[in-house]
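Dear Dr. V.,

Thank you for agreeing to look over these. As mentioned in my earlier message, I'm a first-year student in the group and I'm still getting used to reading structure tokens, so any feedback on how I've presented them would be very welcome. I ran two proteins. I've put each sequence directly above its structure. The first is here:
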Amino acid sequence: MNEIKYQTYINIMKKELVPAMGCTEPVAIAFCAAKAKQVLNKMPEKVMIETSGNIIKNAKSVVVPNTQGLKGIEVAAAMGIVAGDANLGLEVISKVDENILDLVKDFMKNVKIEVKTAEQGVLLDINVTLIHQDERVSVRIMNQHTNIVLIKHNDEVLFDDIHPLDSTENLDYELLNMKDIYEFSTRSDISELEEIIQKQIKFNTEISQEGLSKDYGANIGKMILKVYGNDVRNRSKAKTAAGSDARMNGSALPVVINSGSGNQGMTASLPVIEFAEELKTSKENLYRALVLSNLIAIYQKSQIGALSAFCGAVTAGAASGAAITYLKGGNYEDVAHTLINALAIASGIICDGAKASCAAKIAISVDAGILASDMHDQGKDFYAGDGIVGIDVDETIKNVGKLGREGMKETDKEILYLMSCFY
């Protein structure tokens, strides 16, 4: 691998694997609102939020952390305005004392918060406007959850960096492909990524334990262990689902995300961690497997886009299955076949917003990844001509990407309609 590509992969990992607290869509709204409040430098008398349907879909039904169970876009914005710290990015409300909740409730009672759907057609789009007397501040985020593209104070543009619709921040993601991801994961200087991988292991394991020890949502993680048993396959599904149980239902613990999603960050990491412990693998091998899983997940999502009707747990679960094959001693061909198998099994699970049932979808996606690995162990694989499977792993990933990005556009609209998400 040449130096430019090598450094690009390092930078992609550092950019994508960052800590976040709470579901990333409501937290992105809180961040955007906190940034607008920082610029306004006073409490607003009116708040206007214009955001894309996919943001509304993922923000309407999930609990906002540190709110004692409150849900919704208005709550997220109020938390950001009253108590957020924009300098903390996706941890914007991580340092909020729950005692401040009364102030947030008073703000929501006394300040009009208007929410409507953006018409620009950008899948990830948040525009928060704060008004105080004759002063107005607008902050807009596009394409990525903390990617501020516009800041206006009255008629003065303080910052303007709007990219083309649904573009990534740069073209580096086009350098991703399976062979180079495998080579990078197995041969890179792991010390360059050790800090973020250690943080992913620590944070994601802690929230998984939180989900298993307390009562969150539908308790999918606990149920799996109770009903199906405690072998490594069930533990992998249960611990990953438990992290989502907690995260979707108000836990204030942070996770290290992947592709802008905490659920995807947990799904790409926790099954791999569990199998590594079962197989008694070395620390270095675990780290390499996590780099492999994370990069495969990022590669797939770069083809689909940040938000879609295609459930991101599927791509992350497929990635973790591929990394599990690596942990079992698999080579490149083994890893590639596992990924193909997993995508052939589970592609098509819909994303109908962030909520308690995400934990169950995660369990299914992890199961598909593990089944795909077990299939390959037994010499059973899917090949080109089996549905959307392409001639090789990269073409299969491109096919799934096109399915999620283009083929499911109408599905996404119908989901939004059925959810009555339009304000």
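The second protein is here, in the same arrangement:
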Amino acid sequence: MTASLPSSREIPDAAPVALREVPRSTLSDMVRTLLNNQGRVDMLSPLQRMHERYGNAVMQVTPVVRMVNLFGPDANRLVLLDRDGIFSSRKPWMAIMGRIFPNGLLLRDGDEHKHHRKIMHEAFKRTALREYASRMNPMIAAGIAKWGNGDGKRLAFPSYKALTLDIAASIFVGVDLGPETKRMNGVFEDLVAASMSVVRLPIPGLEFQRGLEGRKFLARYFRDLLPTKRAGAGGDMFSRLARAQNESGERFDDSDVVDHMIFAMMAAHDTTTSTLTSMTYELARHPEWQERVRAEAFALGTPALEFDDLDRAGDLGLVMKETLRRYPPLPVIPRMAEAEFRFEGYRIPAGTMVVVAPIHTHHMPEWFPAPRLFDPERFSPERAEDQRHTHAWIPFGGGPHHCIGLRFAETQVKAIMHQLVRRYRWSVAPEYRMPVQQAPISKPRDGLPVRFERID
């Protein structure tokens, strides 16, 4: 049985033509990627080489899995919308991070995913987001208050990571980590690193074992707090999830709440840290845009950006969109095909891991001209390059697994950047270029050294 979703360039199913086999990459392609240490540092270049050489579909067969890379917005639409219900998100993500982040929303399929997403949605409604924004703004002000002290030099990535984790702990868990922030940050770094480990054995000292130990620590931490959260009336996300129920009165059990909290905490502060760091770099390299965003922030006439102010920060929104285009926090998205399907005349068998790549689509010149240029105006209403195709700009994924926390992420990023531009100007050394590690989360390998100067 085959299932298909025609794209704008596919041959109709009724056409009497033979389907082609997907071209296969060579062993030398894989060896070249490994030798150049491009598994985590540079995912874009190998994808661009494959696309240039093989076209919109290329098969890679390894001793572990048969994998096909599909390129372009049509491929993104086919796989992410999944109108025929043939792609599993759980199977590939379980293989990647199942022992570290089991049963997070991303690792569920079908009716189970719909059920859990519907309950979790209670924690992301507008009323909740409005409350989260009001609660995080004083934390932002306190967190960035000393960034310009002394000579103003600091590493942006760890600075944002500490700030966003403190915010996540307060908004999501309802606790003040205080001196525990550093330890908790280390735990989440261990978890994310373990999800990319090549050696997945519980050997003391290796990153995978550190990830397993971090998982146990967080599970105990959240489980110990759970009875209090269920019994209380708190407005934090943990309390909301502990009490949440659907129209039938169904609730999450303890293990579900714990699993969702661990995954949500990781996603909430890692992805926003990634975006804030990349925005800081681009605004340092393009001071004309930094001044434009600053002028807008002062014109809004409010020291803190509330939820209902988000859409008024138009220039800041353009910068955020362009940053997410250039540095999507999740560079590739895997699925497992549970039935044979076709794409652009190719037959792709069941049991194939299918990978679409936001980072590649975002750098395709036919959709985003001069893709390596930082050009926020490409998202302006006059140009609207992201609107040329429904799945050309996909930093938050798409379809049933479209990021449930995207509005929270936008709220946090804009709220922090709004206060930052009103308080500081910042710069990097003229010759500096940020060395990016693109996986598992886009981030600077050197922490991004920045100088902040107070605005009098």
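From my reading of the second output: Residues 1-17 have pLDDT under 50 and may be disordered. The domain at 2-454 is CATH 1.10.630.10 (Cytochrome p450). Does that match how you would interpret it?

Kind regards,
E.
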